[in-house]
Design goal:
The chain is an alpha+beta fold and 372 residues long. It contains 12 helices and 14 strands. It has helices spanning 10-23, 35-41, 76-81, 98-114, 153-160, 185-195, 205-223, 234-243, 274-280, 288-298, 318-333, 348-354, and strands at residues 2-6, 53-62, 65-75, 86-94, 119-122, 134-137, 164-175, 198-200, 253-257, 263-271, 301-309, 337-340, 343-344, 360-371. Strands 1, 2, 3, 4, 5, 6, 7, 8, 9, 10, 11, 12, 13 and 14 form a 14-stranded mixed beta sheet that branches. Helix 11 links the parallel strand 11 and strand 12. Helix 7 packs across helix 8 and helix 9 (274-280) packs antiparallel against helix 10.
């Protein structure tokens, strides 16, 4: 018999966070989160998303053992501001027992109906900067730290539960040797002169911070046309600055500004931390910090996390300026492989940006939907 329990205590929340450590204990490809950071994500006093969203957390038990979990999420900015009557769910993990996944998703659907919402979609996080999608291809490659990994049987559970595909994402990679500077070297000089643009270089995180708010504003502008985009609020900016910016090598952050020092383009790249996080196994102490710092300094693989161009400058070649900056940085550091985070498969504009690098799609993932 399956029992589902809504959790409230700190111990239960820790059990919620640690369940995947058991589920993926023998996986070579799953990447564990840092437990402390994951707990802070769900802390209503620390994560400002809870000012505009609510979440309830559930654990499933079988024979007194935890066998599944799910977070039921309502983002009120999305529901009220965009009139998207969507019940979100994420952190949806379970053993290969359809009674378990069914019992958990029924709690999500019940809450959605209580709020008079129209459909559920998942797996998704609280916002667009959270992890998204269940993997459908690429199970035998290590997961980046900014995506979820899952067993192949998950997809069968979604189908059995009556869910249909809502959005499709792809993840790609390419060797740095694929990057040929002739595709952007001359163009970026012309573009900088034509539009009076300047590329900013950073060596310290403190140099980035004065532009961080502008970056999040530009993120909101450049991604606003994508389906189900929820803008980052001012209070969330402060949270994400602490959570992300300090975690990224400053030389991996590229900004392009106009003659008035207004931001027109940006990109954030992160070192590949996956293998370091596997060694840390969820803990920063005593050795986790060392593994992560080593990866930050020495990783030869990088992940393109975000790239955004102001709507007024899109299709004007600003990305060539950004790529030229990365080419110089990566050449100096001896970078070998570039990875891209999940991108909507119908986002033609972003795919055109990367076409010259001959990227290889190595993972696919989807979100699933069901009417309430």
């Amino acid at each position: 018999m399956i029992t589902v329990k809504e959790i409230h205590s700190k111990k239960e929340l820790r059990d919620f966070v640690k369940f995947p450590f058991k589920l993926y204990k023998n996986s070579k490809y799953w990447v564990p989160p840092i437990i402390k950071q994951e707990l802070e994500t769900f802390d209503k006093d620390k994560n400002p998303i809870f000012k505009d969203a609510e979440a309830r957390f559930f654990l499933a038990y079988k024979n007194n053992e935890i066998v599944g979990r799910v977070a039921a999420i309502v983002n009120w900015l999305e529901v009220k501001g965009q009139n998207q009557k969507k019940m979100r769910f994420g952190w949806f993990d379970f053993i290969d027992d359809k009674d378990v996944s069914k019992a958990l998703i029924e709690e999500v659907q019940r809450i959605g109906k209580e709020h008079q919402l129209e459909y559920t979609e998942g797996p998704v996080g609280f916002s667009n900067l959270d992890k998204v999608g269940v993997m459908t291809e690429g199970f035998e490659s290590i997961a980046p730290m900014i995506t979820w990994y899952n067993h192949p049987y998950y997809v069968d559970h979604y189908k059995a539960l009556g869910y249909t595909v809502e959005k499709s994402y792809s993840e790609s990679k390419f060797p740095f040797e694929n990057v040929k500077p002739e595709f952007f070297k001359k163009a970026q000089e012309l573009i900088k002169r034509r539009y009076n643009l300047t590329a900013l270089k950073f060596t310290k995180t403190s140099e980035v911070m004065p532009y961080a708010d502008k970056m999040f504003d530009l993120f909101n502008e450049s991604y606003s046309s994508l389906s189900s985009f929820v803008a980052i609020t001012d209070i969330q900016k402060e949270y994400f600055k602490k959570k992300f910016i300090s975690f990224v090598n400053p030389e991996y952050i590229k900004f392009v500004v106009d003659k008035d020092d207004e931001l027109v383009g940006f990109a954030i790249v992160m070192p590949a931390f996956a293998k370091a996080l596997q060694k840390a196994n969820g803990k920063l102490l005593p050795f986790g910090f060392g593994h992560i710092l080593n990866a930050k300094k020495n990783s030869k693989d990088v992940i393109f996390y975000l790239i955004g161009i102001h709507p007024n400058y899109q299709n004007k070649g600003v990305h060539a300026v950004i790529f030229n900056e990365y080419y110089e940085t990566f050449t100096e550091l001896g970078i070998q492989t570039c990875y891209r985070t999940p991108e909507l498969e119908d986002n033609e504009a972003i795919h055109k940006i990367w076409k010259h690098f001959d990227p290889l799609v190595y993972k696919r993932r989807k979100t699933f939907r069901k009417s309430l």
